[in-house]
Structure formats: structure tokens, C-alpha cells
């Protein structure tokens, strides 16, 4: 597959950012009826997972604040947040910068194996930099769909 993954990452991320470009902080913070999270949570979760998959789980330092885990890790929800969550503009800035950071750190290193393979919640094992990046695109696509649905619900 080669370095095409970086172009795919930039494309997927541009679509995610385009989807939320006209949303206000208030709109991004509405939890649709019957759901646990909102658009802001999904965006923060995308940033957190990409950081973990591209950097932390491949043996590199995190590029985002450690507090993101408290707000955006699996199982978290805005209804349980304590303290001030990151604002939409901050998360958007991280999402804009991440593809550049990933290319800068991982270009030419896609074939690297990781010291500790990771098994996803669906049972798929990731054992290389390229594997982590490929899976992160799938992950972002899932959350893109959720964001699209939430956006429709809050604007109805």
C-alpha cells in the first residue's frame, strides 16, 4: 500500500473537518436524544485514538494533552465529565495538525513492527505502523458517520 496512506489520511481528515466546519460550540455540544455523546466528544475521540495509534502504541510520545483520555476515551461520556473539557476550536486545531505530524513522524516507517501488538475491541490485531494507520482510517470513518447522523438530528 505504501505511502498512499498519508494521502488517504489527509483526505479522510479533510472530510471530517468539512462536516463540522459550520457548527458552533453549542451545536457540537448537543447530545441527541437517546445517545450518550455529542459531536464534540466524537471529534475529541478521533483525535485521541489517532494519537494513540500513530504515536503512543508505535513507541512515540503523545502529541496531545494527557487529559484527553479523561474526556474522550472509550466508555467516557459528557454526562460524566468533571472539569473543563477542551473546546471545539482546540480540538479542531489538533485535528488539523495531526495529519502533518503523522507524516512528519512516520514517513518511511510504515513497515516498522511495534514492540507490543494491540488487539482492537473487535478482535483485530495491529502489529505495524501501517496497520495502526489503516485501522485509524476505518475508526475515523465510523465516527464520521456518527457525526453526520448527529448533525442531522441536531439540525432537524
TrEMBL record:
Domain DinB-like: 8-147
Family annotation (Pfam families): DinB_2 (PF12867)
Protein name: DinB family protein
Amino acid at each position: 500500500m505504501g505511502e498512499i496512506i498519508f494521502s488517504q489520511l489527509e483526505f479522510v481528515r479533510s472530510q471530517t473537518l468539512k462536516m463540522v466546519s459550520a457548527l458552533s460550540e453549542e451545536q457540537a455540544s448537543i447530545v441527541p436524544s437517546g445517545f450518550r455523546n455529542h459531536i464534540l466528544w466524537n471529534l475529541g475521540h478521533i483525535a485521541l485514538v489517532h494519537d494513540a495509534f500513530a504515536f503512543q502504541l508505535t513507541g512515540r510520545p503523545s502529541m496531545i494533552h494527557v487529559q484527553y483520555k479523561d474526556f474522550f476515551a472509550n466508555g467516557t461520556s459528557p454526562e460524566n465529565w468533571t472539569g473543563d473539557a477542551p473546546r471545539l476550536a482546540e480540538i479542531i486545531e489538533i485535528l488539523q495538525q495531526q495529519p502533518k505530524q503523522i507524516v512528519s513522524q512516520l514517513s518511511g516507517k510504515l513497515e516498522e513492527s511495534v514492540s507490543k501488538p494491540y488487539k482492537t475491541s473487535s478482535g483485530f490485531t495491529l502489529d505495524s505502523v501501517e496497520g495502526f494507520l489503516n485501522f485509524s482510517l476505518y475508526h475515523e470513518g465510523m465516527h464520521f458517520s456518527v457525526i453526520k447522523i448527529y448533525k442531522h438530528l441536531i439540525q432537524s
